[in-house]
Structures are given as structure tokens and as C-alpha cells.
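# step 3/5: fold
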Amino acid sequence: MTQASQKSTISKGTYHLFVGNLVSTIILAVTLIIVGRLLGPANYGLYNIALIIPSYVYLVLRLGATSTITRYASKYLSEGNEKKAISFSYTISALHFVVGFFAISLLIPFTNIISTDLLHRPELSSGIIIPVALLSVVGQILYYNGIAAFVGLHSFDKAAIFQIIQSVAKLALSVFLLLIGYSVLGAIGGYSFGFIGAGAISLILLISMNKSAIPRNIKQDVAMSADYAWPIFFSILLTGVVAPIQTTILAYTVSNTEIGWYGQALNISAFIVLFTYPVSTALLPLFSKTVNGGTKELASTYRLSVKYTTLFVTPITMFVMAVSTPLTVALLGSAYEYAGHYLLLLSIVYLLAGIGNLSWSTFLYGVGETRRALFATATGSILSIVASVLLVFYVGVYGIIIGTILGGLVSLVLGSKYVSQVLGANLQTSSVWRIYLSSGLSAVIVYPISLFISNPYFAVVLMGALFLLILIPIMAWTKALPKDDVGALREQFKEVKLVGYLLDLISRYLTLLRKDQQ
């Protein structure tokens, strides 16, 4: 494969992955909304509690396998050794599956102890809810390793298809099982078998490509993987352990209903991350490409990533905060009205995008400063857990949210310090404050108006349209979105057609505004 054709393949692959992630995320969001509505807050809280142990188990068993598979599959492919790339991907995936299956086989007999002593939910001890939940561990191993393998093999379209298969299977199975009366078990079954179905298909395809179900070069591949994966494993462990620990703390201190409210607020706030995906796929990989261009070029790239991330994330975050309660009720029903208060606070984390909260870790990993990135992440994670434990007894769920914010702030401060040291330059982007001002003013105008609209659906749709109509003129007035920036963004995201279409609409609106001003 020539360098030009490889670049074209990766460029198209970025678009495939974006579309796959977008469609999958939307379907999964719809699934969570339907499951939340059908279960109600209390049972949805129990659903979240049932998934605590699988979260811990999968976190420990991840072993950095996905990153290792992608890295070496891509390496062998670039060297022209496609057969070795496929063989390595299948060997690690198959062995990882065996390890996962063995682990859950050891845990399933202890279902009663897990339910009553660890989760403090005796109602989970009868039946097969916990065993079915544990099956999600092997499903996730198969699924995420399959995605990693096909990304490493530059079969980006297949990776995108598996994402969509997993989300569709989860939606169909969850809704079907809930509608025929399986309640929490049905939701857990849909979750687990969605992963298993997509993961099994990816494994079968790898076997077909490998032309053998028997792994090859096991000793060599495992040794190579272990050497590369252990730093990644500890990094993922330190960052990933926070959420299950926080849910465990909640299981000991608050009701199922409060956990249900918190879980759905977390789901809605996490949807904001989708708006960072175009930036991460199109801009942030530039860090590793510009590392040889000197600190001046790196600093320019970093500021650009912060600015454009802020441009995507801050307006949507401000809007979500302004309509948090009607948005929650519109999506989930009046039973989840209180979740809007949690959503308001959870969204604060995303407001830190303008000072690098969504860029610093990718930058440090991209330029090879993995130890510094790991230390900053670990420090924030530890503080988040400690703060959550201390505060939850005083303010309940709010203590968990405050702990999350504090941990994120500490990681951001340390990460920004390390980025500044690497670049030897001021990290501030002068135009970022204009984005905050424009978004904040739009939210301040929209919020009081939304209070007078009783229908939550009408409130969200009307306020969304009004927010955009107000936001773009204010951005033009404050020069938060100059015409040159729109053009630069359209160029950066030309492969991501959905984003390009949105930017084209914004450009036309700005043109109309300028004509009116003249």
C-alpha cells in the first residue's frame, strides 16, 4: 500500500468511525431512554447496581489488550505483513476471551455473597441477574478487541458496522425482554447479549481471515503484548475505577431511586462528549504528527485544539444546563424530574474545555509524555474517590458529583502544568472567553423563558431553536466565530460530512447577518 493510498484509507476511515460512533451513540442513547422509562427510577437504579461487579471485572481484565491489538496490527500491516497482523489480532483476542470466560466462571457461584454482602441488595441474590450481568464481561472482551483489531487492520468500515450491530442488538433485545415482563433481568440481558452478539460476529470473522481457529505464535505474541500493555493497563485502571467505586459508594448510602436519577443524568451529560469526537478524530492526532515541528508548531496545534473543542462543547453544555429539568423530563418522563438537578451539576465538568480539560491528556500521550499524563490522571482519580467517600455521607449524590468535579480540576491543573512545561509557552487562547460569553448570554436569555413553558417537549425544541438563533449573532458580534475560523473548520472536517453540513448552515446564517448589518 503506497503512502498516498494509506493516507486516503485512513482519511476515509476517520469518517467511517465517526459515522459508526455517531449512529451507535444515538441508538444507545435511545436504548437508555426507553429502558429508563420502562423500568422507572428505582429499578433503573437496581440495574446500575447489578452492573457494578462486571464493571470491576472487565476493568481488571482489560489488560491493555485493545491498544496492543490496534498498535501491532497496524504496525505489521504497514510493514506489508497482513498475515501476521491478522494472526496477532486473533491470538490475543482468543486468549483474552479464554481468560475472561475463566474469570466469570469462578465468580458466578458466589452470586449470593456478591448481592448481599458486597452490593447490599439481597433482591439480586435470587434468580440469574448477576450471572447474566457477568456474561457482559466476555461480551465486552470480544466486542472491544474486535473493534481494535479491525481498526488496526484499517478495516474501519467493519469496525463501524460492529458498533452499530452492538447498539441495535442491545436496543432490540432490551426492549423486547422488558415488554414481555423481564424487568431488570431483561435490561441486563439486552446489555450483555448485545456485546456478546457483536463480539461473536467479529471473532468469527477474524477466524475466517486467519484461516484457522487455533492461535499461532502464542508465546511470542503474549510476551510482546505484556511488554507494551502494562503502562496502558495501569492508566486505564486508574481512570476507569472511579465510576464503579462511586456507584458502589452510592449503593451503600442512598436509595435505588436516587441511583436511578443519577445514572440517567450521567447518561445525558455523557452525550455531550459526542460533540468532541469530530475534534479528536480530525485535530488531536496532529499532536503526534507535529512533534518534530518544534514547540512553536506544537503550541499552535494545542491552542487550536482547545479553541475548537470549546467551540463545539461549550454552547451545547450551556444549553443543557439552561434546560436541564425540561430536557430530563422530555426524555425520561416526570418520574426523573429530580435528575435534572444532577444533570445541571454534572455538566459543569465540560465547561472546563476552554482551559484544556478535553485536550491535555491527548496532547501528553501524543508527544510521548505518558508518565506525566498517568500521574496527573492518577492524582485526580484518587482525589475524586476520597472526596466522594467523604462528601456522600453529608450531601448524598451531590457529594459524588462534587468529587468528580474536584478530581477533574486537579488533573486539569497538573496536566496543564505539564503541557506548559513541554511547550515552554502560554497556553491561553485569547478568543476562548468570547465563546464562553456568547454561550453564557444565550443560556441566560433562554433559561427564564423556559420556566414559563409547561410542556417539556415544546420547551426543549423551542428553546433549542431560540438558543441557536441568539448564539450565532452574539458569536459574530463578539468575534468568537470569525469567518476565517468557519472556513478553517470546514477544511479540517471536510471528511466528516455531517459536521461540514452544519458548518455550511452556520456560514450562510453569518453571511445573512453581515448583509443585514451593512
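# step 4/5: annotate
Residues 1-11, 281-285, 287-292 have pLDDT under 50 and may be disordered.
# step 5/5: archive (pending)
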